[in-house]
Amino acid sequence: MKTTLSVIKADIGSIGGHVAPSKDLLKTVRARVGAALGGLVSDFHVGATGDDIAILMVHDRGVGDPDVHALAWEAFREGTETARGQGLYGAGQDLLVDAFSGNVKGMGPAVAEMEFVPRPNEPFLFFAADKTEPGAYNLPLYLAFADPMNTPGLLLSPELTKGFAFRVQDVDFTAGDRVIELNAPEDLYNLAALLRDNSRFVVESIRARSDGDVAAVVSTTRLHNIAGKYTGKDDPVALVRVQKNFPATGEILAPYGIAPYVNGAMRGSHVGPFMPVPHGTGTSYFDGPPLVSCLGFCVHDGRLTEPVDLFAHPFWDTVRARAAEKALEMRRQGFSGAAMLPYSELEYGGIVAILNKLDARFTVVAPVETEPLVH
Ligand code: F6R
Ligand code: MG
Ligand code: MG
Predict the structure, then answer these.
(1) What's the 134 CA to ligand 3 centre distance in angstroms?
(2) What is the C-alpha to C-alpha distance for residues 364 and 360, in angstroms, rounded to an integer?
(3) pTM higher than 0.85, yes or no?
(4) What CATH number labels 1-112?
(5) Domain boundaries, the chain
């Protein structure tokens, strides 16, 4: 019998700015999902990373199930009432439409779901990130699933040496899901050519080529494509199965030691280091830095074990200290060059408005007389 894991997350209000949801807000969401326990869902976990609340649900209804999506929508809607009642900042922010219409995809919340026949032991990791975009997982996933410098299992395990199939989505395309399948290792350079652009090309899912089983899924929501304008960064979630035919937990986590620079942070418009933090951590310095949390679970007979908070381990203190240094270093150059995002990725239209106003004040002082080129 197949099991489905669904993570649906949204920012529906937080304390002190875009920092962290209130305890009451989490309680409301938990209570609403909890009411479906033993019915629609066989188990669940509700938690927060930065200002986002993620609902992880276990069920057997497959990916994109309207009732499971409706449950999450309803929990976020009820949570929004609590957030409004408490006067939280940005209450209901990510619920971009008034009425639910069958699937939360395209309505604001981010979704990552996978369906599989569980192994006798089914360990998986649940990632949640804040103040960044879905492409923030590109580099860690590429290194974990395609680079033997990071993942010795790609050399050591006969299953892993068969490689992995990456499905990459062009998230700038709005008339549907525009995707490409690329096989590692044969397509490595093609994969790298796409994944260098975190804002446009996003790893949507990964499958093991040994047996076609799903290994990883990432939410690919682009809020500004849905709303027609930037309404906040997309703060992505991801699920990754580990061990046996998949990379080991430590191989999946290792790339986060880089604390790579990603897009997001202050006003969703800057570049900052991706800092691994314990689950439940809020944001702070410069509306960030971009955060990522990771909980490890096993799922068995539809039930989750308690989570292990993988970035709470003392090892990550050193990485956090380095990430803080990287954040301070980048901030020293303020708005200049690589520190701030290109116009297309800014959360605000202010700079474009300034440029438009200045346009009329530009003068061409040394016109170049050019004859049209005739071949
Ligand atoms: C992401 C996030 C930020 C804000 C941004 C806008 O979780 O919180 O990207 O969307 O800082 O802030 P305000 O609401 O002040 O425009
Ligand atoms: Mg926010
Ligand atoms: Mg957020």
Answers:
(1) 12
(2) 11
(3) yes
(4) 3.30.70
(5) 1-112, 118-375
